[in-house]
Amino acid sequence: MATIKCRECRKKISGKEEKCPHCGASVQTQKAVKQKKWHERTSVTLCVAAVLIIIGLGFIHIITGVTSHYRLPFDITLKESFGYRETFINAGKITSMPYTTAKLKYPISCKILQKLEYIETGNVFETKMLELLRGTMEIWQTEFEETLNKPQQRWQDQLRGKSETIEKTTSTAEAYNNRGIDAAVKGQYETAISEFARAFRKNSAYADAYYNRGLVYVAIGQLGPAISDFTKTLEINPDFIDAYVKRGNIHVTMCQYDQAISDFTKVLETDPKCTEVCFKRALVRFTKGQYEKAWEDVHKIQSMGLSVPSGFLTNLRRVSKREK
Fold first, then answer.
1. Is 188 helix (H, G, I), strand (E, B) or coil?
2. pTM score, two decimals?
């Protein structure tokens, strides 16, 4: 049974009493109101404060990983419009990943960081970053290929179909193809292109002639026609693995990463132990921000007892937040 203290005599009495049995004072008028607990007293205030904070986050960006103009380890800036997309910007993470990936995944953050001059801006900067990424990928690719101890091969040595003798007058598809190869080796690229064209005009199913012309187009920097020739090669012969590799390489150069991954995957479906292509796919997946899939390729290569360039692993760990 609940008890209260009489305000007059300070003695405990039953809460049901109307008068204090000790001093006769009225009890009903002096029953103590039950005190509210702290969270009951502050719940409304906390709710209001939380709502105001949530609404306030819709108006600002909070940037971490930078030193602000006020020498603080973070910065705050107003949003261009109300919303909660990319409210928190991790500058360290964004600047660690390839710029093309960062711009794709965090477009607002990149724009804000450029606006506040934490990173450079403009088309020149983007071109520079793209060239830097491409150069870094080439360095990693070269480092990996050096561990394989394979002899370097000139692109001319990859031309298909050459016989021991070059027919000067024969008008077969094979003869035209051979003359095209001879011209390509001598650096007579226009002649080579013409001879390969004669070869597949003579035989429309002559995949080697399309492939060879594609190699010449790559050599002279005409990547669009090269892709067309490698595609035609694969239409004629879907098992022409080298055509997938060459087309995939061009897609990487042209920043067409989805197409590159598709071509490299096709190669690995046929030859799972083609480690060079597996590493190329890992590089492209890293560039696209597909870090877990890049790790899958890395682990596949390592399971075959091969080393992956340490620089690539360091960058992959940094952006994927892995320790191993």
1. coil
2. 0.69
